[in-house]
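Sample intake sheet
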Amino acid sequence: MAMRIKKEDNVKVISGKDKGKVGKVLKVIPREGKVIVQGVNFTKRHQRPTNQYREGGIVERESPIYASKVMLVCPNCDKPTRVEHRVLENGEKVRVCKKCGEIIDKV
């Protein structure tokens, strides 16, 4: 599945319990069409004490959400926008903001 969102992008949640929150994409899971966003969709997990986690207990962590529930925040106009893929004259593929028309980055 083609993903229009990449790791380190700033995104805004457009539906669900965390609607309106903005965060950075920590991980992209293209096979499932999901992303993990910093500070969004926390779930609680019971953690047993191990060498890695000295203290057990209930741990809160971010869970994946569907990529269709988030929109990329354009770094140029600071608004949530759809993403367009364009090929430049020199053969370079880039992502383009649909609102302001500015180039976001290379693909």
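Comment: DSSP finds no helices and eleven strands in the chain. The CA atoms of residues 12 and 22 lie 4 Å apart.
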